[in-house]
Amino acid sequence: MSAEFRIQVAPEVVAAVNGEKLPAPAVETRGLDAWYGDFQSLRKVDFSAAKGRVTAIIGPSGCGKSTLLRALNRMNDLVPGYRTSGEMILEGSPAPTDPAGVIALRRRMGMLFQRPNPFPMSVFDNVAYGLRLERRWKKHDLDEPVERALTRAGLWEEVKDRLSRSALGLSGGQQQRLCLARSLAVDPQVILMDEPTSALDPIATLRVEELMREFRDEVTIIIVTHNMQQAARVSDVTAFMMMGAGRAGELVEINSTIDLFNRPSDRRTEDYITGRFG
Amino acid sequence: MNRRARVNNALAFGLIRAIAIVFLLLVVYVLLYTVVQGWSELTRGAFYTSPPSTDHAGSGAGPQIFNTFYLLILTVILTVPSGLAAGIYFAEYAGTGRLVNAIRRATETLATLPSIVVGLFGYALFVQATGSHPSRLAASLALTVIALPYAVRITEDALRSLPTTLRESSLALGATRWQTITRVLLPAALPQLVTGVILISGRAFGEAAAVLFTGTVGTPTAYANYSLSPFLPGDSLAVNLYVFRSQVEPGTVPDAAAYADGVAALLILLVLVFNIAARYAARHAVRRLQGAI
């Protein structure tokens, strides 16, 4: 395979690939199939995301990237006619499928959406939302975890004087980091990101990408992106998906980001990253 | 843009604006005309405190003001919980089964019933079938029959118009559906829900036909009680207006027409004040729930 297509990869990612082995997977799927009614959206997907690392999912539109992501926290279960088969493994044990188990699973997996979507309530109430779902809190006891989550999301300094004002008054980039803080408040092990920066300007995008790198070792991140540069900048591992027969999404290749971009092992991956397809 | 498109654009815009202005003028005219006509009554103190009389001049509308608010509050208490529940069911749980569609169509049909029919139906069901007499409770139940389909529809539409991502981001944090509805969706839909309550209240304020059969005995009896009992009969301002404008003999109550004008003016002003107050209260509640921008 040719290596003419070179792409800039974050230095610590290079170091990681050269120096250390990937940690064990936090999330895995084996032979995952998914259907919307009669339409098969995913076929036999074997995906894994190493614990404490960033895994990017790239591929052309309609290849099932978001379906795979939303299968992991069972968000797709809300879609009428959706069903799956195959295995989903969380930290080595099968993921729960019963309603109470799914709720517990979602608490362990935060999610960031394409558009920032803070709740129409105050900044404070947004961050405290997840905590208040489990039990009643005295307002005072929430101050510390809310501040901690906002600090981790790099937002504390910007909002500490307007905690009681509406979250909708924040800028788009701030809103997205607020959504990140909202997820972080319940201490998730995994954060799923569905094109989290596609509605943000370049500077806000950079802030979110920096944060993703700061969470290394603490949180497992799985990010769907249609921006290959972004995948290269932020991820340790990249999965490439494409539509196969019958337009069902298939996982073509999953490898360390540096290898996937520089030494793709599949012809289709190479075509896609060099721009011959897509 | 070519000339033709520009001219059409200007024409369309001009026409729409003219229509809007006509409607505004109409509202202002009705309001002013009614208030001017009823002014002499509105400025007479006894008008607000005395009971109405069907055999001499100098009627007041005190008990009717009380009773109008009584019916309004009782109707809202009866309508809002059930309307919310049904609207939440349709928007969040029901899906599109055959039975669900039948229920939805039945609700819409209910909304198109003429209020005089609801009044007669209410009389048959809440008064005759229960072997009782017309009462405030029966009147409020009839008003609920009128208001409920609107309450259901407004709740359903308000919830459906919220972005899906609100629902999803709550569920993604591990919230149950019920937590999502009560903690995110209903507060987010509050402005629309308040508008709904105001619309329903407007109906309850102004409804005469339904109350005529279910709340009064249908003759020009002037009710004069301030009791809180829901089992006593009582007429609202709207019924009183109808009775004094069309049922009372001019010979026995010489000022009946002037009195009716006063009642009409009072009714329209109360609706106006109620609307403004409800909006103000809603804005306050929204700020508390959602935080100031």
TrEMBL record, chain A:
<protein>
    <submittedName>
        <fullName>Phosphate ABC transporter ATP-binding protein</fullName>
    </submittedName>
</protein>
<keyword id="KW-0813">Transport</keyword>
<dbReference type="GO" id="GO:0016887">
    <property type="term" value="F:ATP hydrolysis activity"/>
</dbReference>
<dbReference type="GO" id="GO:0035435">
    <property type="term" value="P:phosphate ion transmembrane transport"/>
</dbReference>
<dbReference type="GO" id="GO:0005524">
    <property type="term" value="F:ATP binding"/>
</dbReference>
<keyword id="KW-0547">Nucleotide-binding</keyword>
<dbReference type="InterPro" id="IPR003593">
    <property type="entry name" value="AAA+_ATPase"/>
</dbReference>
<dbReference type="InterPro" id="IPR027417">
    <property type="entry name" value="P-loop_NTPase"/>
</dbReference>
<dbReference type="InterPro" id="IPR017871">
    <property type="entry name" value="ABC_transporter-like_CS"/>
</dbReference>
<dbReference type="GO" id="GO:0005315">
    <property type="term" value="F:phosphate transmembrane transporter activity"/>
</dbReference>
<dbReference type="Pfam" id="PF00005">
    <property type="entry name" value="ABC_tran"/>
</dbReference>
<keyword id="KW-0067">ATP-binding</keyword>
<dbReference type="InterPro" id="IPR005670">
    <property type="entry name" value="PstB-like"/>
</dbReference>
<dbReference type="InterPro" id="IPR003439">
    <property type="entry name" value="ABC_transporter-like_ATP-bd"/>
</dbReference>
<feature type="domain" description="ABC transporter">
    <location>
        <begin position="27"/>
        <end position="268"/>
    </location>
</feature>
<dbReference type="GO" id="GO:0016020">
    <property type="term" value="C:membrane"/>
</dbReference>
